[in-house]
Amino acid sequence: MAVLVVILFVAICLFFNLLGVVSLFRFPDVYTRLHGATKCTTFGTLFAAFAVIAHSVARYFATGEVRFLVLIIHTLVAAGALLVTNATGAHALARASHRSGIMPAQAVVDRLEERESEKGGATA
Amino acid sequence: MTTYHVLGFTASVVGVAAVFLIARLVGGPTMADRAVALDTMNTFVVCLMILLSAYFDSVVMVDIAIVYAALSFVGTMFIARYLEGGL
Prior knowledge:
The complex is a heterodimer. By secondary structure, chain A is mainly α. Chain A has one domain (2-105). Helices cover 81% and strands 0% of the residues of chain A. Chain A is built from four helices and no strands. Chain A has helices at 2-26, 30-63, 67-99, 111-119. The longest helix of chain A is centred in the middle third of the chain and has 34 residues, at 30-63. By secondary structure, chain B is mostly helical. Chain B has one domain. Chain B has helices at 3-27, 31-56, 60-84. In chain B, α1 runs antiparallel to α2 (31-56). Chain B starts with a helix and ends with a helix. Chains A and B meet through α1, α2 and α3 of A and α1, α2 and α3 of B.
């Protein structure tokens, strides 16, 4: 029973993580690569944490050792830290790519750049 | 087949996937592409550490994964600030 739940979570984890790798190789420019890689790997790693939690719950009820409860709590903290830091880091990387002058593939105008230069001093 | 075997197999696949990202890390056309590949590799390493901590029954590896996630976030922020030209 526990094996089936862990296999389900692990299958979702592997599917999305490998999808992130594929997106990093198949997308044309840095923005789409960032989009695909960040979303897919964050979701996949979240389900890896769920698989570890399901495994730990099963082991706790099988053996009754307290260290599996500690493993559950620490895995939850790790998943929460990853959820916060991945999204913020991706935002910072996308903003840095735009400011360093990288255009999306096949783009001909940059409305964001025009708006920021209209306002004068793009500091926001 | 126990849950230990499932988690160990998943950890090996995630590790191989992280190795594939080295191609994008080396041959990315721009510096931003390399930063994205490095960020993705950091996420995979955190995923690997979480899985292996359950496989080896050691809680310490999850603590190291938390610290690694925080440090990789700081590194990504510094790389982004450098790409903007503000550093």
